[in-house]
Amino acid sequence: MPTSDVRRGPAAGDALQPATNARAFAAGRALRQGAKVLPEHARGHNRALVLQTLFHQGAMSRADLSRETGLTRVTISDLVAELIADGFVAEIGVREASGPGKPAILVDLDRAGHRIVGIDLSGSDTFIGAVLTLDGDIVVRREVPVPAAEQLVGTVVDLARALVSDAHAPVLGVGVGTPGVVDDHGVILTAPNFGWAGFDLQGALRDALGLPVLVANDANAAVLAEYTFGGAPDDVLLVKVGRGVGSGLLAAGQPMRGSRFAAGEIGHVTVGTDGGPRCACGKVGCLEAWLSAPSLSSRLAGTSSAAEREGILRDAGERLGIALAPVVGALDVSEIVLSGPHELLGGSLTDQTVETLRARTLAPSNDDEGVRVRMTTQGQDIVLRGAAVMVLSGQLGVS
Known about the structure:
Blueprint: H1 39-57, E1 60-61, H2 62-69, H3 73-86, E2 89-94, E3 105-109, E4 115-120, E5 126-132, E6 138-145, H4 152-167, E7 171-178, E8 181-182, E9 187-190, E10 199-200, H5 201-209, E11 213-217, H6 218-228, E12 236-241, E13 245-251, E14 254-255, H7 287-291, H8 293-301, H9 306-331, E15 335-339, H10 342-345, H11 348-360, E16 372-375, H12 382-396
Parallel strand pairs: 4-7, 7-11, 12-15, 15-16
Antiparallel strand pairs: 1-3, 2-3, 4-5, 5-6, 8-9, 9-10, 12-13, 13-14
Helix pairs in contact: 2-3, 4-5, 6-12, 9-11
């Protein structure tokens, strides 16, 4: 399999066992469930709570963990011993003594003990894969050209196998972000750009790799990365522009997926009655036909002046604002994050999106500037890091 830009990180340690009954949490939010925890689920919940606390707050003593989580010292001691045996947690030394008594032993996640494989299928020209640490840092990266339709699955499987081999450590799981509507079992219900309908990509990869695999829409993966690593608020909409256009939405810190798993599919919302290019779905007037990276780049390539380029970008920004205004009005999101080529989305396009939102939504109060629109700072790695969050959440209850 042809690959490029391969970089290796350090090797790591022992095999891992996945946690059960895991629940996703996020930094700075309440770590314990608001609903009653059933006795049969309590241990899995408490394991996830300990791992979540260490993930975000770093090394601490068992007594510190007891105070932070509200669990008894006996429970913490038992859980930490179990997590050390499972390879998730390690003792890393003693705290510097600041008074009389025996110094406390510090424990932390065994951050170098395992790896996660992330794959991003949203690119216009390439599929990107990476080996990541628990902290979302990329230690190995591979890229392959987007193949012909009949070679798509084989190419993704080969890329995943190469990355697992590159990990040189136990792989906690594989996360994949893909265009299209994806159900909660990783079945791609429809992906017009790939010609997939009802395809069980998660099952195909799991059978080929023999590892836990999680598949989600690329924008839904990206918004998890922005929430966990990018400091996004509890109510945020992320617009992902690449081969297609989609969005991921969090409300009160929880993903919104919809009754048919199509929440955020703004790419195929009609944003004009003035015709326009035909979309891959067969309709005319879809946002994706104006805003996808290939479509927008193609129109810009035919420009002959700066003014014409500015007009194309502002037109795309206005259509994005038209699509987003009802979402902002209905859900009162506080922030919109754009992810995609900065040379396309930054500047004039973003400015016009803001202007359109202000014109088409309720005017903010005097002490409120309204919804914030910004570019992500995570660049092209956002889906890869979101895929890592999917695995952390699914396997350990950490996000």
